[in-house]
């Protein structure tokens, strides 16, 4: 049986981090998907990365799977996916899941606070 700490350690080992400064340079590119996996109330309160797709952690698999009735066309295995949450845990787990689903270029931005601290732009949620 795995603990959440073990699951996070595995995810962190498999999904490379991307710095906020590096990620800022990718904003607006059509081959990049910024993925906000926080809950809707979190996004509504603090906003999100401009253009980010907001999908709560519990729905990512359904939205990312082209065979799902809930699939979102913004998910494309050819794109770089940059996932983030509040502190980096959920986005690490999402990144690992997306890799298991065939998404090969996945990065973990970590927490939204790091984005804000680096002077990242914010769009209302």
UniProtKB/TrEMBL annotation:
Annotated ranges, domain Rhodanese: 28-124
Pfam families assigned: Rhodanese
One Gene Ontology term of the molecular function aspect: thiosulfate-cyanide sulfurtransferase activity
Superkingdom of origin: Bacteria
Gene3D superfamilies referenced in this protein's UniProt entry, alphabetically: Rhodanese-like domain
UniProt xrefs under InterPro entries: Rhodanese-like_dom, Rhodanese-like_dom_sf
PANTHER family listed in its UniProt record: THIOSULFATE SULFURTRANSFERASE RDL2, MITOCHONDRIAL-RELATED, THIOSULFATE SULFURTRANSFERASE_RHODANESE-LIKE DOMAIN-CONTAINING PROTEIN 3
Protein name per the record: Rhodanese
């Amino acid at each position: 049986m795995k603990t959440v700490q073990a699951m996070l350690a595995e995810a962190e080992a498999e999904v490379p981090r991307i710095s906020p400064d590096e990620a800022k340079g990718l904003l607006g590119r059509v081959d990049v998907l910024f993925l906000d996996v926080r809950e809707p109330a979190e996004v509504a309160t603090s906003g999100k990365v401009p253009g980010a797709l907001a999908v709560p952690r519990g729905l990512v698999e359904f939205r990312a799977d082209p065979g799902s009735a809930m699939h979102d066309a913004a998910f494309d295995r050819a794109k770089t996916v940059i996932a983030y949450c509040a502190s980096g845990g959920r986005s690490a787990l999402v990144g690992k899941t997306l890799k298991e689903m065939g998404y090969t270029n996945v990065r973990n931005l970590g927490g939204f606070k790091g984005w804000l601290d680096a002077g990242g732009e914010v769009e209302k949620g």
